[in-house]
Amino acid sequence: MDEELLLTRIIAGIEGGGDDEAYYHELVTDLKSLLDTDDDEILNRFYGSLSSMASSFLRCISAAMDSPVESGRLAILASDAYLSLLLSTNCPVFTFFSPIAFLSLLGSIRRYLKRRDDSAGQGSNSQREKGNKKKRGRGKRNLGYEDGEETEEGGFDAKLLFIVLEKLGSVLSFVHLDRFPDSLKSLVQTVSEIPLLALEYSGFLNYDRLMEMCGKILSGVLNSDHGDMALTAAEISKSLTPLLLMGKHQARSFALGFVSRKLMGLAKDNSELKKVVSNLPKFLVHKAPEKAEPRGFAVEAILEIVKAMEVEDQSDFVDFVLKMCQGKSNFRILAVDLIPLLISSLGNPLGVNSSENGLKESWGLGCLDALLQRCSDTSALIRARALSNLAQVVGCLSGDERSRSILKQALGFNGETSEGKGAVTDLLKKRCVDEKAAVRRAALLLVTKLTSLMGGCFDGSILKTMGTSCSDPLISIRKAAISALSEAFRICTDEIVTTEWLHSVPRMIMDNETSIQEECENVFHELVLERILRAGNVLSPDSSLPNNRNNTSKDLDRDIEALFPEGVLVLLRELCNSEVSPWVTKICGSLGKKKRLKPRVALALQCIIKESESLWLSRSMPINKWTAPAGAWFLLSEVSVYLPKSVEWEFLHHHWQLLDKNDVQGLDEQGDEQGVECNSSTWAGDRVCLLQTISNVSLQLPAEPAADLADNLLKKIEKFNLHSAEVDAHVKALKTLCKKKARTSEESDMLVKKWVDQVLAKASKVTEKYIEGVSSNNHSFVTPATLGSRRSKRLDSVSKKLSKAVTAVYTIGSCVIIFPSADTTKIVPFLHTVITSGNSDSKLKNKMPQANVCLKQKAPLLYCQSWLTMAKMCLADGKLAKRYIPLFAQELEKSECAALRNNLVVAMTDFCVHYTAMIECYIPKITKRLQDPCEVVRRQTFILLSRLLQRDYVKWRGVLFLRFLLSLVDESEKIRQLADFLFGSILKVKAPLLAYNSFVEAIYVLNDCHAHTGHSNPDSKQLRTKDQAFSIRGNDERARSKRMQIYITLLKQMAPEHLLATFAKLCAEILAAASDGMLNIEDVTGQSVLQDAFQILACKEIRLSISRGASSETAEIEDEGGDSNTAAAKGRAITQAVRKGLIQNTIPIFIELKRLLESKNSPLTGSLMDCLRVLLKDYKNEIEEMLVADKQLQKELVYDMQKHEAAKARSMANQGVACGTRHRNSEPEAPAASEENVRDSGLESRVVSAAADVVAAKAARSVLREVNGGAATPPLSAMSVPKLRSSRGVRGVSQSGRPSADVLESLRRRPTFMSDDET
Q1: Treating both helix axes as pointing N-terminal to C-terminal, what angle do 460-469 and 495-504 enclose, rounded to 10 degrees?
Q2: Over 70: is that where the pLDDT of 674 sits?
């Protein structure tokens, strides 16, 4: 009887109607309860009664499914009841099915899954309100949930959702939607949205089951009963696109799986459906986002779909991708990202497994060519991506030998004849020095991959470029360059690769970045020390020597090269290069402190030296002409500091005796008996390194041999016939041996003091004796004499005495360095005598003894060496330094000897470390050496001052910074590279505001301009004389280009806000100063300053577009992976406001300055107009408001630019005509043709002039058209008469409507606009 009551209530409710939520809730509950009954008779009566009021019922049930209350729970319950009605037995489906009701059902599902404020997202609130709002509704009890679970009112019920979806799938099996296309479209869209909408509730429901049910529904509508399958598939593909393009998630996996399996499976038997599926990747291409990470997800989705396609469809898509490479930027970058994935995923890209013509027909070669073209794209982002993806392709296709061969041919490396030069060589040269960091980094990555492909055989210019990149301002570029160059050195051991690596990578041990220092240590350990270690292991005691008995030097060198594999001899030889050895010392020291030096390295070096000697003796060569492999002793001396126990004393003793017995003179007298050259400097260098090694291991030596060695060293020192490089080694080794002999430190100091005093006494006697001899004999040391004469013998004797005196003075300095407390009171006077000989200063003569002759001319070696020794003594004695530092500064400024100036610069910089306060006033004199005539002195000064600046011993103030600027345009390429690194890397971090603060002053100083009233002072002439050497005066092209290069370097170091401020300072301090008369523009230097300002304001480095730091640097930003959209938007808004105010304050200055220059008929008018034209283009949005408010100004600017462009075009055209006339006149012609040539020339000039006017008018209008947003500027004849304000305050018009007399008179007085050729 309850069923009867439910039936009556439902019918009465439908007939009575209602629109409140309680009514809908009761209707749905009763309907669900009735449908759950098993009484067929009641249901049949219900269907019969309901059929007569079907429209009313559908209206009510649709309203219930559209209800938003309870967060959509009532609506989803109504949908469940409606679907149950359609699925019930004997239900008249077509009577109760309505498209409107079906759309309401789909809408209820979407609303139920949307985010709610009081449900799953706020579980705490639900728990808090559970006791107050829990309600057991009839609907829940009647749905059959008998497991005791409770669902809050308005909460999310996953089971209810699954029931609705399952019933929806069942309904679609007999309700066909071919007659309801809108319902079908809505169904597809809703089911496709469910995975996205259900993400919030992934923790409350079985997500895999939900995806399975959605897949079943979509598969069910892919049936001919529901309409055209192709149209349905297209709608499904379109609806699944958001899922395909989203990040990694189950919803994306569901969409990819459905498309690649279900749709592709159906497409195999349906040609129409196949077209739809094959066009889906192309559709995704158009929908792909532009940002890097979402674009990457889109590329992956496209690739997954393409991989599931058939071969012919894949080929068609590859052709589509190649066409994309020629499209817009978003398509080009997408194509560039797709190509490497297609090549690595699709089969046989190079046609390796195809027919003989497979190379030409393979699709992979077309993709390679497209990538190569995009490597030169106008967009920096596309260039970077193309280069990195090309590197990925090269690595992918370098697997087997045949693919490598085809790849080399495709890249232009044609086998053995290429020598590392291919189609990509010129490309890499450009891209490795690209202005964008991401492009440079990608180019270096490509070089690394190509190195493996080519076996390290690269063009020398590419290696040079990689070496230069090691000094790039960006850390990531330096790391990439080290990696690329190390990869080349790892694969190839050619001399050119070895040399470039050693000259570029070890120096990075001094980099400011710790990670780069560690990388430098790692690659040096791997590629240098490990390689030497392997070479030592190969040379086992049982290894047989080559049997070649030829004793020529070439054959011997060839045998030695064969004895040591992997280019070890070349490696060792370059290690002792003067430009490499300091960095090797630093690296070995760092590795030794970290205990990373292996004892086997020292053993390997000893083995290499022994084997070289054995090979020499095996050829019956004289041992006194043998030299160890160059660099072996040097490296052994460096590693022995930390590996003293690994060096054998017998080995050192044997070679010390060998090197000590064979002095340079004996070698020279013996000559070259067997065609083997002996280099005396090599012997000296080996002795120095051997002594260094001995001193390093002296603490491990036996006592008796150590004492004998010390006695031998002291005797050799006291002879004063050693080379200067050997003196330091002997002195240092002797001091170390004293430590070995002594038991305590006090005893060691006493021993060192004893022999130092002994050596100093003998050295002073030798030097004083020589000075006395020179003073008593007034003969010349440079006059040539006949060989064998008595005079020649006497000169030889004096020359030996001079050499001995020079060595003695040098020995004094070495002893003072190792023992600063030595007594030098007797040495200072005679050194003073030498360095002041020939000085006319009477004060000096009265204080110290003077020589009778000028030793500076008679004995220049002794003179220079005395200065060096005096500097060492000053470092040990502060009082002595205070007395002699002024003399050092004076000699540095006046000396004509480059070697002496170089040593004095070193001395002065050492003084700066020890006596900073005393030397500070002499810094300007030291900086003068930055413009020294000698390149070595300039480079030495630059390096030493840079180190002082980095360590804060010297501050960036005064003239120091301005004088450093000229190093950026130095004649020496090495100095320019050092300067670029200093300004681009070190200063940018250490002093970021330096370039901005000194920019305007640098313009005046570089032009040597003192025409500004603010620069005038009583000492202007003296300042001009001092600073003229550090200026680049002149208006010629060479001087302007040098100055501009300096300006651009400084601008690149500035932040965006500093660029804006610099723009304002240039306008205020130069342009405004010129218009106000403070800057004399009639002076040549003043004109240069003004012209430089115009060029700077027009250059691209100072132009700050709205997108700077955003789109223009997209590649760099994407690499960083940062997301700062809010900060970027705020920065762009501030920048735009500043730009607007800046340009609106600048244009009036330009207008006033233009009038001043025109009144003076200045040649700078053209530069001003060129600058103004650039500003009108770059700041068109900001200037537009100004020109709209002042139409007269706009018209004047148009006319003046048109006039200027016409003059420029006419001048260029006339030059072309003149060149053509000269060319025709240079050819032999008949005399009668001369008059005709004159007429032709005049006619041609007039034609060219008219054409120039047309071009100028077009150029001027194009500028203002951009400013006006596309509206063309009217011609001058169409311009209206400007309205001028009258003296009575009326706007130039009388009450009668006619212009007043004052206005007419003012117009009469206005000058007419006439071009230069009008009269």
Answers
A1: 10
A2: no
